[in-house]
Amino acid sequence: PYDVLVVGGGPAGASAAIYAARKGIRTGIVAERFGGQVMDTLGIENFISVQETEGPKLVAAFEEHVKSYDVDIMNLQRAVSLSEPGKDGNKNIDLIELKLESGGTLKSKVVILATGACWRELGVPGEKEYRGKGVAYCPHCDGPLFKGKPVAVVGGGNSGVEAAIDLAGFVAHVTLLQFDTVLKADAVLQKKLHSLPNVTIITSAQTTEVTGDGTKMNGLTYTDRITGESKHLALDAVFVQIGLLPNSDWLKGTVNLSKFGEVEVNHHNATSLPGVFAAGDVTTTPYKQIIIAMGEGAKAALGAFDYLIRQ
Ligand code: FAD
């Protein structure tokens, strides 16, 4: 059995595995796809000490760093369930069991959940084609690339309105499109948004297509849900802010999840289940970023080590 078994091979999981292995304890990492969301990222300009890099390049560096320690890497393996000692068919009294889709079972004293999240997509033509070529999901990451340009934000909840306020500070113009008849963000955010001179708010708008010239996006088509009219906006970018989905479905009924499905963690990254820690985008920790996921992964591994030495 492992002392520490990390589930997830994104920045949070890679960092947790390195911190655990450096304590000289038996460490394994299981990942459906090593690298996680970073594999899908083109330009990264906010990973401190590296001015500019690309996702796959950064992932190769994570992998090289993890491999320099004695860590078992089990890539292309999806975890399907977790069972605490003595429960759900787990006959061990002190080991947590992790079942894999491939049929295998792994055992460990401590498990660190780092299965990340994925952005909810619009699901319209052009979205996939122009992803990273104008279609963006993270204003903190890609916002500065569109300084002085016209952009749109889709989504009228807190994240959409926050993104529009943030972007309005440096882009030429922001159009905020909301599907519903009203915005859903907190009143204080809506008030701020309404006070900005370079923001237009369109409610009852259903985005139907992202348009482009074959190399990058150039606009967006939406239907006015009241009149049924189809309209086109010329844009350099669209930020899709309709929700972040934590990869936690497989954990339902084991650890406590928030109403958004995020794994609840305390300051030491412990979950509600003894011996189970969590880090990164799958957790309740705010601001989903690479550097934050890495810091949280380190904290979870140190929390796990503290737990182990007390057993
Ligand atoms: P993830 O990166 O999501 O990794 C999750 C890991 O868990 C993966 O290995 C996945 O395969 C695995 N996994 C999931 N479910 C299971 C399962 N059941 N069993 C086994 N393994 C599983 N952040 C920045 O700081 N700067 C940027 O420029 C930036 N740009 C971005 C651009 C895009 C297009 C996207 C999508 C995100 C961007 N982000 C950026 C956000 C950043 O990528 C995330 O905050 C970060 O990757 C979160 O790390 P994580 O380790 O928590 O999760």
What shape does the CA trace take?
Answer: elongated
Tell me the distance between the termini: 16 Å
Approximate helicity band: 10-25%
Number of strands: 19
What pattern of helices and strands is seen along the backbone? EHEEEHEEEEEEHEHEHEEEEEEEH
Q: Structural class given helices, strands, pairing?
A: alpha/beta
Largest sheet: 7 strands, mixed
- Portion of residues in beta strands equals 25-35%
Number of helices: 6
Rg, Cα atoms, Å: 21 Å
The set of bound ligands, ions and cofactors reads: flavin-adenine dinucleotide
The residue-averaged pLDDT reads 97
Low-confidence stretches: none
Family: Belongs to the class-II pyridine nucleotide-disulfide oxidoreductase family.
GO biological process, one term: response to reactive oxygen species
Cofactor: FAD
Subunit structure: Homodimer.
Describe the protein in words.
By secondary structure, the protein is an alpha/beta fold. The chain is 22% helix and 29% strand. It is built from six helices and 19 strands. The chain has helices spanning 11-21, 55-67, 139-142, 158-168, 187-195, 290-309, and strands at 2-7, 27-31, 43-44, 53-54, 71-75, 79-83, 96-100, 105-113, 117-119, 135-136, 150-154, 173-177, 199-202, 205-212, 217-224, 230-234, 237-240, 244-246, 276-278. The two termini are 16 Å apart. The mean pLDDT is 97. Bound molecules: flavin-adenine dinucleotide. Flavin-adenine dinucleotide (FAD) binds at residues 7-13, 30-34, 36-38, 40-41, 44, 46, 78-79, 114-117, 119, 137-138, 141, 247, 250, 280-281, 288-291, 293. Flavin-adenine dinucleotide (FAD) binds next to helix 1, strand 2, strand 9 and helix 6. Homodimer. This is Alkyl hydroperoxide reductase, F subunit.
